[in-house]
Amino acid sequence: MQRSEGSGPPDATAAPRRQFSEIMLKVEEVSLSFGGLNALSGISFEVRKGEVLAIIGPNGAGKSSMLNVINGFYWPQKGRITYKGVTRPHMRPHEAAASGIGRTFQNIALFRGMTTLDNIMTGRNLLMRKNLLWQALHWGPARREEIEHRQFVERLIDFLEIQDIRRTPVGRLPYGLQKRVELCRALAMEPDLLLLDEPMAGMNVEEKEDMCRFILDVNDEFGTTMVLIEHDMGVVMDISDHVVVLDYGRKIAQGTPDEVRGNQNVIDAYLGVSHV
Amino acid sequence: MHVLMSVLVQPFLDIASSPEFFLEVVIGGLLTGVMYSLVALGFVLIFKASGVFNFAQGSMVLFAALTLVGLMEHGVPEWLALALSLVVMVALAYLIERWMLRPLVNQEPIILFMATIGLDYVLQGSGQIAWGSNVKALDVGIPDKSFTLHGVLLNQFDLVAAVVAAVLVVALALFFQKTSIGRALRAVADDHQAALSVGIPLKTIWVVVWSVAGFVGLVAGIMWGAKSGVQFSLALIALKALPVLILGGFTSVPGAIVGGLIIGVGEKIAEVYWGPYVGGAIENWFAYMLAMVFLFFRPQGLFGERIIERI
Q: What is the CATH number of domain A21-100+193-271?
């Protein structure tokens, strides 16, 4: 892993561990409200190509809303989002997917009745181009195409070490494995930007370590840019290049893990502070 | 004693005494069953692909048949009327998506189900406003003649219906199991949000499913309409499809077929052999009785996905 390459001792302050230049996603002054509730107020940050950015904050801080805005589940009332240099007014979720934004959900959203393999294959749907008739007959160019997609998916399955549950309906899998299948399905889309909503929630220590390793490996191997939400501070400090901290829909801090760790606003938000 | 004798023994003696006639009854039942399956198919399609139990399927059958007959009565040639009816059903699917499904995204299945009850009334009403409520004859050019093969009486029309249903089933099974759209349909049925996140456009998928269901409704409408006239009661054959679904499982295309066949054969045999001893008209309730027994012992149906509850 090249993570701490050239950054001196691991506890070096302030200096980012890796350098990134190209901006992939730019969020500017985004505000979102549901009725009278301000879920997000004037949030701005940037995601650079190749980095792992963590969004943290107490419950109800607007973290999931932020992800939902990025991939088009919610449309913000104010602000602009520029992705790959294109500023869009409204983007629908399937368009976001088509433009390379993959995601996983806080409370697993898998196709429970389908097998692991079928679930992951849905991630390839957008990339399939051949005629339906050929597909139905399972013949000719469509057959070759299916085989190519299947090979890609099999590589991912090996990568995430879920070979032995290929044919199992995902509804029967334990929680930790379901999370892994969900990650695998998102990766099958070959996303440029991957949004992970609490990828380690509800996992035991061992499962968390596995998941961390997978996330870092994916980032290294495929160069996938990631935005993730996580509550476990240890994990966040270990795997992210940048951290954005939200509280009550506002951005209260931003920076490298070490900068954020020492920020007084962040400490107050997490520990609670009496305003005398 | 006499009653027991006539219910438990006599019918079997009747069957044994004339195997050719029994075969005829079974084949007659199978062919009727195929017609039930045709209607049940429409339900299964929509249920599989959008998790909605479409109460309006019967009305879609009626609506499609009414449109076809109405157009033909206005002097539109057969092939054109057929093509136009198909266009109407696709347009209907589009409208249903726009005005019914889209505002109800991510709602509970029961809410969507209630919406389809509303749709049922709308379709019945509008179909009859547009084309009138008289019984119309539909002639599709298939002779309703009977002939004998090896001493068994067969009906040509029923045979054609069976072939049509078989072709339809094979085509749909391939479509659902082997194509990427089929996989997308199943994905949408499972989880709307997840489907969107992998780039499956809900709207398009819904229009496709309801169009296919409309097409199946049109085929069912043509077959039933040609057999018994296009009239309001066509909407009620949907009720016969319910026990078929309970037997076959709501999510299984082959299940709809086998369920239809079992019910078709079952009710014919019951009517012919047991009917005389209990005063007849068994045909009307036999299917529901069978469905109830199934609900007791195998609620997911013969081919349905097993119900597993994690506690």
A: 3.40.50.300
